[in-house]
Recover the amino acids of this structure.
């Protein structure tokens, strides 16, 4: 290809390559970048719609600011694929979410251009405030920008940070990527004109000089400032942010790259807390994603290593089992209410919400509120079910203890994405829930080994008069789902899968399938423990009488998990057995397929067998 016909994107590898592009070239670059993302993400899989929506914003940010010196903090880090492309990672974008490939979120270890490691939402403004404070006393301080959006403004942490940043007058810019039209219904020419005007140096100079002039006349100054705020409030939805101490600008068209460059250039030179409201379209440039934002939030790979190496899975997903159960239950019990923190689709509540809209509550990205809201419902005699991801439940740990467990309220936690989640990596791994839940008094903690147990445990947890949790993975079941042949699950009771000699394998959750092969190879007893809390203590005592070794297996952190509970019981009761705990190591595991990560941790059938042999033959 001749230099003349070469794509602009081919010439752009780092932000410095953007600095001298003309307006037309910037527009062409955005078109090419969007086409590149559509092709690569559809091929490799990953977060889709949100990334297509921020192409122009990302391009404008790297044109105006000087990363990595200037700090760009991406909230809900799945908006950052275009950022990765423009910061030296274009050639690796096809490896995103794969083992050994790019992280699906910004990661400081991956690139100096990633100012903050993220994965969960609503954190950017807090981090940016801290950075702005740290930069304040430097001789040549960096500019600090937080880019928040894709629902993250529904998180209370974002408003806590806005309140603090405005109070201390932090020198920073917050950009709201509003891709759901959640604050403003449209973007008009008048609003764009006003944003250009109020962000321009001339207007800012005139306003500041005017304020200085009336400093000696405080009553007049207050009247004029109030008039300015209310005039802006009539045409722009920024009064809230102004009240929090931010100068509000917008909304502006987030797909006009040259307008964004102009506005950002103006704001770059202005001191203090600034808030820019940008309207974008999720899925921009790809019609199916524009018309179905939820489905195209993320896409599965069509041809990559993860897809090729993954085993064929025929059973329903555990999320679908939960969906079946809660819909069945709601038909019979009008007291049931479902609560989720912005994970209606991911947690399997779409069908429930369609059938029982008055009993389905999506509270936004507000995990703390979700749990205490459920506690309030329980207080009034209703039956709340909190459908939440394991790693998101971490954000509401205090509320689980303080607002649910201490008053012993009847709340059921349906915990999805437990254990290894695979491609989303360490920020989304549900590898700590057994450890942090089993320490809480009054809490019952269950882990099903298959789909039938999952359905039955949800029923058991719902019937239990107190806080209960059922945790299950982001995975398919065995394919043996049969609602007409469900096991009866009694609180604190395990079951024996096979009888053997010398070694008793104690399996927690969906590790049972891998344990079966090891038990057969070693002629070991295999127990499906089912409960992490309370443990089946009578069964453990019985097994200790005719076995020399206990091997605990779980897809949770080995520190403090189900195996630790067995250790504590064996020690306190002086049982004559040696115990080996198999679980996830004391590190944050990288992204890859669920199968790859479990094998790496020695939790596939081969790894379990080898670990047992090494322990027994010492």
């Amino acid at each position: 290809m001749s230099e003349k016909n070469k794509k602009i994107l081919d010439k752009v590898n780092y932000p410095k390559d953007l600095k001298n592009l003309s307006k037309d070239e910037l527009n062409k670059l955005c078109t090419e970048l969007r086409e590149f993302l559509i092709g690569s993400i559809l091929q490799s899989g990953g977060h889709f719609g949100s990334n297509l929506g921020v192409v122009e914003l990302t391009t404008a940010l790297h044109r105006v600011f000087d990363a990595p010196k200037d700090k760009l903090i991406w909230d809900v880090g799945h908006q950052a694929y275009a950022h990765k492309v423009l910061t030296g990672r274009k050639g690796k974008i096809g490896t995103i979410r794969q083992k050994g490939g790019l992280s699906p979120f910004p990661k400081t270890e991956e690139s100096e251009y990633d100012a903050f490691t993220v994965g969960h939402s609503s954190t950017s403004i807090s981090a940016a405030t801290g950075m702005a404070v740290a930069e304040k006393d430097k001789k040549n301080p960096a500019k600090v920008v937080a880019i928040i959006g894709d629902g993250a403004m529904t998180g209370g942490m974002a408003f806590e940070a806005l309140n603090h940043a405005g109070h201390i007058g932090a020198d920073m810019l917050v950009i709201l990527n509003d891709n759901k039209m959640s604050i403003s219904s449209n973007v008009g020419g008048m609003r764009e004109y006003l944003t250009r005007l109020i962000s321009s140096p001339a207007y800012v100079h005139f306003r500041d000089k005017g304020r200085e002039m009336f400093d000696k006349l405080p009553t007049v100054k207050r009247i004029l400032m109030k008039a300015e705020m209310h005039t802006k409030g009539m045409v722009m939805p920024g009064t809230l942010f102004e009240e929090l101490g931010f100068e509000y600008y917008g909304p502006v068209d987030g797909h006009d790259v040259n307008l964004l460059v102009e506005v950002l250039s103006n704001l770059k030179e202005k001191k203090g807390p600034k808030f820019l409201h940008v309207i974008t379209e999720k899925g921009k440039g790809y019609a199916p994603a524009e018309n179905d934002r939820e489905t195209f939030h993320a896409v599965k790979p069509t041809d990559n290593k993860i897809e090729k190496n993954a085993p064929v899975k025929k059973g329903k997903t555990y999320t679908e089992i939960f969906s079946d159960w809660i819909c069945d239950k709601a038909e019979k019990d009008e007291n049931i209410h479902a609560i989720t923190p912005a994970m209606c689709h991911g947690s399997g509540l779409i069908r429930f919400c369609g059938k029982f809209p008055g009993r389905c509550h999506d509270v936004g990205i507000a995990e703390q509120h979700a749990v205490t809201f459920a506690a309030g419902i329980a207080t009034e005699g209703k039956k709340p079910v909190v459908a939440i991801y394991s790693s998101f439940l971490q954000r509401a740990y205090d509320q689980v203890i303080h607002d649910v467990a201490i008053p012993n309220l009847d709340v059921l936690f349906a915990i999805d994405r437990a254990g290894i989640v695979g491609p989303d990596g360490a920020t989304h791994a549900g590898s700590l829930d057994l450890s942090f839940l089993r320490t809480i008094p009054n809490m019952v903690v269950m882990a099903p080994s298959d789909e039938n147990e999952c359905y039955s445990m949800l029923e058991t947890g719902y019937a239990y008069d107190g806080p209960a949790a059922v945790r299950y993975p982001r995975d398919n079941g065995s394919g043996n789902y049969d609602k007409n042949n469900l096991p009866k699950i009694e609180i604190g009771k395990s079951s024996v899968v096979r009888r053997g000699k010398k070694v008793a394998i104690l399996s927690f959750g969906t590790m049972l399938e891998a344990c079966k092969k090891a038990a057969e190879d070693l002629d070991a007893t295999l127990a499906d423990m089912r409960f992490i809390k309370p443990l089946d203590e009578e069964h453990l005592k019985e097994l200790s009488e005719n076995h020399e070794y206990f091997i605990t297996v779980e897809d949770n952190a080995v520190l403090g998990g189900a195996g630790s509970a067995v250790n504590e019981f064996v020690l306190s009761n002086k049982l004559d057995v040696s115990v080996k705990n198999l679980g996830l190591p004391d590190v944050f595991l990288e992204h890859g397929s669920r199968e790859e990560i479990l094998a790496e941790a020695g939790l596939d059938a081969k790894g379990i067998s080898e670990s047992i042999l090494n322990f027994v033959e010492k």
User: Anything to note?
Assistant: The chain has three domains: 8-299, 318-471, 495-616. The chain has 26 helices and 19 strands.
